[in-house]
Amino acid sequence: MASATALRNNCRKIICIGRNYADHIKELNSARPKQPFFFLKPPSSILPPNSGPVLRPRGVNLHYEVELGLVMGKTIRDFDAADEKGAIDAIESYIIAIDLTARNVQEEAKKKGLPWSIAKGFDTFCPISNIIPRSAIPDPHNAKIWLNVNNESRQNDSTELMLFRIPRQLQDISRVMTLEKGDIVLTGTPKGVGTVVEGDVMTCGLSVGGKEIDEARFEVK
Amino acid sequence: MASATALRNNCRKIICIGRNYADHIKELNSARPKQPFFFLKPPSSILPPNSGPVLRPRGVNLHYEVELGLVMGKTIRDFDAADEKGAIDAIESYIIAIDLTARNVQEEAKKKGLPWSIAKGFDTFCPISNIIPRSAIPDPHNAKIWLNVNNESRQNDSTELMLFRIPRQLQDISRVMTLEKGDIVLTGTPKGVGTVVEGDVMTCGLSVGGKEIDEARFEVK
Ligand SMILES: [Mg+2]
Ligand SMILES: [Mg+2]
Ligand SMILES: [Mg+2]
User: Of the bound ligands, which one is closest to the alpha carbon of residue A185?
Assistant: First the structure.
């Protein structure tokens, strides 16, 4: 199993599912998608644990979004969502990730019909935990992901609330772009997103059946 | 100098500048940007020469956009646009690329404020030429790029028409995301974009001072 730093150095794309938890769609006043949609973050945005702070660009309303991340273990193309076992087999391991977003930049882009790549793609905008072995999460649709800011709970929901489950995500992504070993899929964020500012400390983690599996800590500079 | 296939296998991000030629902005009825904006295509979309046809997804209005591509030779961050020599030094080599676009998917995304990643990111949506050594293009702002469909000229303009020149592009990108060795920057397309359908053959090329430097050919399936 590779380290988070090896993942940072070898990952070739990060695909993020948008609007995949109903309550998060409500809190951003967004439309509920009829099918999964997704966007890219660059590998240069990955911040492994213990490798420095999150850098907030000047003038940016920086929003956290905690997400379950899949690290792909094989090449898949035109995947069939009915193949639930195949979906799990295609995953090498998991991570907890924060899909950091320059919310004001994103809102402006949405209004103008412009791409999201800048709003989502700054350096350090994808903090990740250590690698979580696949065996530690028997069912990726039955885990709790959570995020605290300065020890206050902000996000804490089960992955069972995903609107589009993982096999469907892999189907829809791989009909557009081939997924390759080392690619990361971020599966969407539950409700509770919000702003962090300089000096804030984000802690995020994942638990299964009440048992804490992994946790990571990031300071905002 | 790496081959186009090695580039395909090692590239970690493709950053594309949007709306960088005035006449192309007019033909799409777009607003002229006050600063360069950009988006990502995934490395999985790269199609080296002689490696198969461009695959048009069903129901897609497939548009070609010929562009000068920069292959980065070093890591740059917070680059200063005033450093024109530094910009050229940071480029390892050039390619001619076609920024293929699912135009109907993109128009829909623009209307809904959604990301462009799907419209721009299908497999084979980034055909590239062989690698062009830096020495073959003494001034990247003084080259002709052209694209023919079935031997009819569709695009043919000088890179001197770029609204934002390369040092400025590298500045604006690298203030957001670190550019790394092997990353590709597509510098925007001149006027003349349009649709291709099954069976069409796209030829694209680059010339300097009337001398043909390289050429590539792609069939649409
Ligand atoms: Mg997200
Ligand atoms: Mg985008
Ligand atoms: Mg383009």
Answer: 1
